[in-house]
Amino acid sequence: MSQDLSGRTVVVAGSTSAAGVAVVRTLSQAGARVAAVDILEDRVQELSVAYDNVTGYVCNLADLQAVEDLATSVRNDLGPVDGLIHLVGGWRGGTGIKGQTDEDWDFLHTSVLTTLRNTSRALYQDLATSPVGRLAIVSAQSASSPTADGAAYAAVKSAAEAWTLAVADGFRHLQGGAESPLSAQHSAALVFVVKALVDERMRAAQPERKFPGFTDVSVLADAVQRIFDLEAEQINGQRFPLTAGHLVGAPA
Question: What's the predicted TM-score (pTM) here?
Answer without folding.
Answer: 0.93
